[in-house]
Amino acid sequence: MIPRLDAAALAVGDGPSLAALGAAATGVGFATVFNTALSAERVDAAIGTYRAFFHLPEAEKRVVDMARTGSNRGWGAAGSEQVDPEANPDYKQFFDVGYQVPAGHPLGDKRFYAPNLWPDDPEFKRVISAYYDDAVEVATGLLSAIAKAIGADAAHFDGAFEAPMALLRGNFYPARPDWAGAKDFGIATHTDYGCLTLLATDGSPGLEVRKRGGGWIPVSAPPGDFIINFGEMLEFWTGGRVKATPHRVVGGLDERISIPLFFNPSYDVNVAPERSGQVMLAGDHLSARFEETYVHLQGKS
Ligand SMILES: O=C(O)CCC(=O)C(=O)O
Ligand SMILES: [Fe+2]
């Protein structure tokens, strides 16, 4: 039901692979991909780097706490994101890194291009920045395969990712706390906000994808395989053809690390369907969703 696809075959336009991707994008809304430019070793290194950071004492993590800033760079403590207003804030911790525009860039004052915050350890910045750059490349390739797969005009996406609001996140799910009740989740049910999410995990289970008829499908992938899914902007942009499917992590006995890259267009791209006459700027949609879900940005525009 959730296909496993060869990224190299997608990149050269292999027909059956593109067809399977198109069916996944317009159907279940999830797939897994392997054979990308990011090896299992690179993913393992990123996971290890995040794991070491999340295991630091709170006081050290607080030095890069995003709650002290007006943007979303650095560490998000447990309870600092609430993706579902019906649920309690998530008990996961996370660390966000964004796209850096060159000094003087006209979009430089936007929150989405805020300077990154880095922990003291220079290895963290080295490993995570390199992972970021390659993940953006992988996501770019996959998105053009998706355009091909659904028969969209490739020109529709061309130029839309010049300064991508691409956010790389390390998610840290500790073992599910014993106080956790029915409204407590590692990450509560949500759809992703942007175009494409490229998700690496440490291989442990936890992610569940909502079935259209009800119920949940567990999805896991070892380091080196990526889970991909599609967000609200791509659903809107494609007139509802591509599906943004709700998903969640309840959490279990073991800690878990996952690394989503949320791949989004440049701030000022209109993601309304072609010839619809509507306007929805990518940046405006993302601002609205950030202000709903990051607790420290709630009510702040
Ligand atoms: O940890 C996972 O497997 C999923 C994370 C997720 O859905 C998210 O960060 O948006
Ligand atoms: Fe998600």
From TrEMBL:
PANTHER family, per the entry: 2-OXOGLUTARATE (2OG) AND FE(II)-DEPENDENT OXYGENASE SUPERFAMILY PROTEIN-RELATED
Q: Which Pfam families match?
A: 2OG-FeII_Oxy, DIOX_N
Lineage at the top is:
Bacteria, Pseudomonadati, Pseudomonadota, Alphaproteobacteria, Rhodobacterales
Q: Which UniProt keywords apply?
A: Ethylene biosynthesis, Iron, Metal-binding, Oxidoreductase
Principal EC category:
oxidoreductase
UniProt-recorded Gene Ontology molecular function terms: 2-oxoglutarate oxygenase/decarboxylase (ethylene-forming) activity; metal ion binding
Naturally occurring in which organism (per UniProt): Tateyamaria omphalii
Q: Name the chain's protein.
A: 2-oxoglutarate-dependent ethylene/succinate-forming enzyme
Cofactor requirement: Fe(2+)
Q: Name one GO biological process term.
A: ethylene biosynthetic process
Q: Which InterPro entries match?
A: DIOX_N (IPR026992), IPNS-like_FE2OG_OXY (IPR044861), IPNS-like_sf (IPR027443), Iron_ascorbate_oxido_reductase (IPR050231), Oxoglu/Fe-dep_dioxygenase_dom (IPR005123)
Its domain of life reads Bacteria
Keyword set includes Oxidoreductase: yes
Catalytic activity reads: L-arginine + 2-oxoglutarate + O2 = guanidine + L-glutamate 5-semialdehyde + succinate + CO2; 2-oxoglutarate + O2 + 2 H(+) = ethene + 3 CO2 + H2O
Report the EC code(s) recorded for this entry.
Answer: 1.13.12.19, 1.14.20.7
- Pathway assigned in UniProt: Alkene biosynthesis; ethylene biosynthesis via 2-oxoglutarate
Its family remark reads:
Belongs to the iron/ascorbate-dependent oxidoreductase family.
Q: Is Repeat a UniProt keyword of this protein?
A: no
Query: Residue ranges of the Fe2OG dioxygenase domain?
Result: 162-265
